[in-house]
Design goal:
The structure is a homodimer. By secondary structure, chain A is an alpha+beta fold. Chain A contains nine helices and 13 strands. The interface between A and B is large, with 73 and 73 residues.
Chain lengths: 321, 321
């Protein structure tokens, strides 16, 4: 059965029974707006997954899409040092979308919240029709009385640290592009039997990222001076933090694991990158370098010119799949 | 010049210089998330405009699209009795989108906030590429210590009132469909010279709705027992309020203006529908009926069976234009 064969109300009902309840919500889906308890300053962010540039149906299940749409937004909240409290989900879908895909998406949204940000859930949303499957999520978070941790707060001579994996998601994407396309370059379904154990983890990092987001508020309490999530690759995001803070970030290649190139330029890991005064590194973060006077990103003391990242307008080839 | 010829950063820069600053924002665009001052409970809602089902480029300018995307969301916030504080805007656009359209959209977003909800502005967003131009807006609002006004709070024997026009937007849409399509049914540009004065107002109500949203918080302070925005036509939305509240809503046709049919079933007005104890009607609201024991919507004492409303999955004909 497809969404075109069901009423908007029935589709909504099937989503809402799956998405659970946010502990901060006193009014959830069903009124003009959700109502959320707030103890003070909040953070808000939005990020969209679009069929074509952001995912291929041959590679991602509905569950994967729901999970990833939640995770990438929850990461932005956690990277401010805030605790995620609520998601709003705007779904625009072709009439031919199977309702099972929508239900799986709802399951993925809920499970990502439960796994990465317990207490957070979908509190509202919007359903409409579109020629292009589009999942626009807004995430809200509570700073619980703390100041936000901005990307501009790093001082020279501090520890640069990361929580979560670097490069795994990008390596997972490369596996998909290299091995799961047909002769015409069209995406084909992943054969799990064709994957080694480590490769399964890399694919999961790409399709269902699970960065340790509870460490965001922990880092804030530990005195992180700057923080951001690594969505465009370590080098590009570190260069943004360096520029915003007016320092250079000197990375130590020995701390970046065996695949240094992927760790430096692979995107979509959503790990947390943060700077701390010496001695303040909280559990779960590992040092990967230091801030120093200057600008840009250094690797083992020398300026690093590669950048990574992905510009959707310049780089999408138009393939949908 | 098109968005495909510009970098994401340059597109963002051109938007942000236009969208202004929300008075509640202590951190705006540029970090992982926006930071908003909040004095207590907040409301949050999201609504999307999709090219095809929701707008036609021949009829709507970029400015219209930005304005309407803001207005429909601000109305949902005001209908809770909250004061809108911030918008997040997720834009997914084809590479061929002219940058002037994006800039005009940013102008429209800002002007709608300034006109309908002063102090509110765009605090964050997301840019990505898509085959389908999609504008997903999330609006946040502050309850300023008040309880939210739900659609479920109406009691029997109260005044039913509305602030804003009813049926104008639907009549405007009918003018577009009836008179500004070519022989193949494709939308063509509106010739202003072909419109009478009153017709220009109807088109503006459809393309740039301007409901009196400041009356939402005013109604809450005046003791409104239920409130919602009229987005799917008066009858359908009143029937939702009636069902949620466990009452019937008895409308008085003499209060609905000369085009009663449009007032009852035309959509997209985003007027505020509210119920008040007798004697509590605040300025700007006009009585259109009463709540009574029972269920459903009555017109001049008889059950009204028409409904209006629009189901995007069942009713979009696939035309883009």
């Amino acid at each position: 059965m497809t969404v075109g064969e069901l009423s908007e109300q029935e589709i909504l009902r099937r989503i809402v029974v799956r998405t659970g309840t946010a502990s901060a919500a006193s009014v959830g889906p069903g009124d003009d707006a959700a109502v959320l308890r707030s103890s003070g300053d909040i953070v808000a962010t939005t990020d969209t997954l679009v069929h074509g540039p952001d995912f291929r149906m041959a590679w991602s299940s509905g569950y994967d899409l729901g999970w990833k749409a939640a995770a990438v937004n929850l990461a932005d909240v956690a990277a401010m040092g805030a605790t995620p409290t609520a998601l709003l989900v705007a779904l625009a879908m072709p009439n031919a979308t199977p309702i099972e895909l929508v239900e799986a998406m709802a399951d993925g949204l809920r499970d990502a919240c439960d796994a990465l940000a317990p207490g957070c859930a979908v509190v509202g949303g919007d359903l409409t029709v579109s020629a292009t499957l589009t999942i626009a999520v807004t995430a809200l978070g509570d700073l619980e009385g703390r100041a936000p941790v901005l990307r501009s707060g790093a001082l020279a001579d501090q520890t640069v640290a990361v929580a979560g994996e670097l490069g795994h998601s990008g390596r997972g994407l490369r596996i998909l592009f290299d091995r799961f396309r047909d002769a015409d370059g069209e995406p084909v379904a992943v054969d799990p039997a064709a994957l080694g154990e480590g490769e399964r983890e890399l694919l999961a990092a790409q399709l269902r990222p699970a960065p340790p987001l509870g460490l965001g508020p922990l880092a804030a309490r530990a005195g992180a001076t700057a923080m951001m999530d690594v969505s465009d690759g370590l080098v590009l995001d570190a260069s943004r933090m360096a520029r915003a803070s007016g320092v250079a970030i000197a990375l130590d290649s020995a701390a970046l694991g065996p695949d240094i190139s992927s760790a430096l330029t692979g995107g979509e890991d959503h790990a947390l990158l943060a700077t701390f005064p010496d001695g303040a590194l909280p559990p779960g973060f590992r040092a990967i370098g230091r801030t120093v006077e200057g600008e840009g990103v250094l690797l083992d003391g020398a300026p690093f010119e590669g950048r990574g990242g992905w510009d959707p307008y310049a780089e999408w080839d138009g393939v949908v799949g």
